[in-house]
Amino acid sequence: MAARVIDHGVRYALALGFSPHKDYFPAVRLLAGVDPNASHESIPLGEDGIPMY
Fold first, then answer.
1. Could you count the other beta carbons within 10 Å of the beta carbon of residue 14?
2. Per-residue pLDDT tens for 1-53?
3. Longest dimension (CA), the chain
4. Which among 4, 6, 12, 26 could disulfide-bond with 36, CB atoms 3.0 to 4.6 Å apart, if both were Cys?
């Protein structure tokens, strides 16, 4: 499930024109081989698909 949250967060940031932090690339190796879509649990990602702070 963590891989899914991270994947959605990065995709959203990229859509807004933000690049991942430089530490993302070495850290994401910890999730190598994990399919973010393998989890079927609903993950709240804000309201109407938009992050809320």
1. 11
2. 788 888 888 888 898 899 999 999 999 999 989 998 888 887 777 788 677 66
3. 31
4. 4
Q: How far apart are CA 18 and CA 13, in angstroms?
A: 5
Determine the 3-state secondary structure of 50 from DSSP: strand
Under 8 Å between Cβ of 13 and 20: yes
How many CB atoms are closer than 10 A to CB 4?
19
Confidence (pTM): 0.70
Question: What is the residue whose two structure tokens read 């994947």?
Answer: 7
Residue 40: how many CB atoms within 10 A of its CB?
7
**Cα separation of the two ends of the chain:** 21
